[in-house]
Amino acid sequence: MALESPGCEPVVLDLGTGLRRFGQTLPQDGSFRGHAFVTHLHWDHVQGLPFFTPVLVPGARLDVYAPPPQAGVSVSDAFHDFMRPPYFPVRPCDLHGEVVFHDVADCELQLGSARVVVRSVPHVGPTNGYRIEMGGASVVYVSDHQQPCDGTDRIDEAVLDLCRGADLLIHDAQFTEPELARKRDWGHCTLEYAVHVAATAGVRRLALFHHDPARSDEAVDRLLPGARELGRERGLDEVLAAAEGLTICLSPSSPSPPPWPPWPPSSSSSSSGVRPKASRTA
Question: Which of 60, 112, 114, 117 has the fewest CB atoms in 10 Å of its CB?
Fold first, then answer.
């Protein structure tokens, strides 16, 4: 998943296997500069890093932001632990370009003209969601989201804070309702819950993401009409299924946004173009 806007360095969302293909479209001469926001450190979100060819050249730089996996263990520590012999032949420090790791959680970052809001999201282990505002549009990425196990449709306040009024929400939609009943504590949610999150937060467009690995493209397509009908009933402009190679162009939706409210909110606080490229197999 990547966001691109004129005048901004590219922003990558997670470092899965799709990173290899995206890297082939970028400069290979050492001039690359970019940022990667990793939601969490499970294998499917990090294993693409050593195959990202732009950072295999001296002079290139990639800044990687992620939640530290546990107290006393940094993101850099974690990457150097799982990306090393005998599990992999090279370490992050062996890549010819520069990879800089940053521990981030519940904060706001300014990257040139782009603003990134970071919030913790319910999943299995420390997990972030990200809101990226660039080119006058806002994209929210909540790739892995634990639906409440108690059967309610409650939404974590941090997730609502991320999503409110976004132009595009890319959201976990791994399970059907029967699948969730069997796998309620697996850290994911249904497409109905994804629509609920989007509608409650006033999102314009929802991209269903993190499809179950066992679900074929045809099966995803069969689920989509029901999700779109539910989205229309809840006031969404569009519901779509993320797919490999998909490009969405977003026009500027408003003037520069106001300063983000503090987090966590105090008792007196209220909380409630970019080109994203998506992959169906994430």
Answer: 112
**Residue-wise burial string across 155-180, b where 16 or more C-beta atoms lie within 10 A, e elsewhere:** bbebbbbbbbebbbbbbbbbbbeebb
> What is the SS3 assignment for 78?
helix
Based on its alpha-carbon atoms, the radius of gyration of the chain, rounded to whole angstroms, reads 18
Q: Are 255 and 223 in contact (CB under 8 A)?
A: no
On the question of a cis peptide bond just before residue 86, with omega within 30 degrees of 0, the verdict is: yes
Could you tell me which of 149, 127, 112 has the C-alpha nearest to residue 67?
A: 127
d(CA 273, CA 250): 5
Q: What percent of the chain has pLDDT over 70?
A: 89
What pTM, to 2 d.p., does this model score? 0.86
Q: Is the pLDDT of residue 273 over 70?
A: no
**Using one digit for the tens of pLDDT, what is the confidence trace for 120-173?**
999 888 999 999 999 999 999 998 898 988 888 999 999 999 999 999 999 998
84/2 Cα distance (integer angstroms): 26
Preceding amide of 225 cis, omega within 30: no
